Structure formats: structure tokens, C-alpha cells
Amino acid sequence: MLVFSTDSKAAPTRSEYLAQVAAICGAYGPKLDRIRPPDVAEPGSVMFAIERVLPLLEAQVNEVRALRQPDDLRARLARWFRFHDRRLAMLEKANRAGRRQDFRTMSVAYVDFLLAAPKAAELSKAIGIPHPPC
Predict the structure, then answer these.
(1) In this predicted structure, what is the pLDDT of residue 8?
(2) Confidence tier at 56 by pLDDT (50, 70, 90)
(3) Could you tell me the pLDDT band of residue 4, with boundaries at 50, 70 and 90?
(4) Cis before residue 132, ω within 30 degrees of 0?
(5) What does the domain layout of the chain look like in residue ranges?
(6) Burial (Cβ within 10 Å: 0-12, 13-18, ≥19) of residue 118
(7) How does pLDDT run across 62-104, given as a tens digit for each residue?
(8) How many helices (H) and strands (E) does the chain have?
(9) pLDDT in tens, 18-40
(10) Longest dimension (CA), the chain
(11) Which of 16, 56, 57, 74 has its CA at 20 to 30 Å from residue 120's CA atom?
């Protein structure tokens, strides 16, 4: 008697994983797109945008992080997650500074976040993750 089993815990293929990531990013993209880019010369505008963008980006990254990863992408994804964690930390720093009315620190952290976007796109592209919005 031959018995075949399918391991429900098997890692997804690269294409299955990327399709799951695309679905998550596709769900968050329109929400993020509805948030108007701030006028960096107006601290209130920056705070307004950060307070709306930050929870969405955190949720998006956490949903992607919760997916089972294909073995062949683990190292690249670890780097991608570390980079996105640093970018989120920049926004968190900007948010904390804005609440303290330390607008110089807020502006620097926010601009650092923006300047890291091309690197985020590069890392995403190397993995096959859709960018934007991920």
C-alpha cells in the first residue's frame, strides 16, 4: 500500500508567495493612495499624513511578515523586512518628534523616510515584490 501525504505546512512556491504579497499590497495600496502627500513646509500637514500612513504601513508589513516564506527567498526577505523596519522606525521617530513639537527632528526623520524609498523599491524589485505599493 502506498501512502502519499501533502504537507499543509510546506513552504509556498515563489510565485504563490509573491501572489499573496501582491494581494496584501493591492489591498493597502488604495488606502495609502487616498492619503494626500504632505507639504513638508507645514508641520501639521506632515503630522496628519504620518498619523494616517504609519498604521497602514505597519499593518501591511506585518501581514506580509506573517506569510509562510519560500525557502529560496528567506535571506532576501530578511533583508527586505529589516529595511522596512528601519523605514517604519524613521516614521515613528518623526511622529514622536512631531508630538513633542520638535519639528526639525520630525522633518529630518520624514525626509530620511522619503529618501529611503528608492532603496525600498530596489529591494522589492530584486525579490519580485510589487512596488509600489509595497
Answers:
(1) 58
(2) very high
(3) very low
(4) yes
(5) 14-127
(6) exposed
(7) 999 999 999 999 999 999 999 999 999 999 999 999 999 999 9
(8) 5, 0
(9) 999 999 999 999 999 999 999 98
(10) 74
(11) 16
111 class by beta-carbon count within 10 Å (0-12 exposed, 13-18 middle, 19+ buried): middle
Residues 44, 26: Cα–Cα separation, whole Å: 29
- As a whole number of angstroms, the distance between CA 12 and CA 23 comes to 15
CA distance 53 to 36: 10
Q: What's the CA gap between 2 and 10, in Å, rounded?
A: 21
Q: How far apart are CA 21 and CA 122, in angstroms?
A: 16
Work out the average pLDDT over 114-126: 93
Q: Which residue has the cell 505546512?
A: 9
Other CB atoms within 10 Å distance of the CB of residue 4: 4
CATH of the domain spanning 14-127, picked from 1.10.1760, 1.10.1740, 1.20.120, 2.60.40: 1.20.120
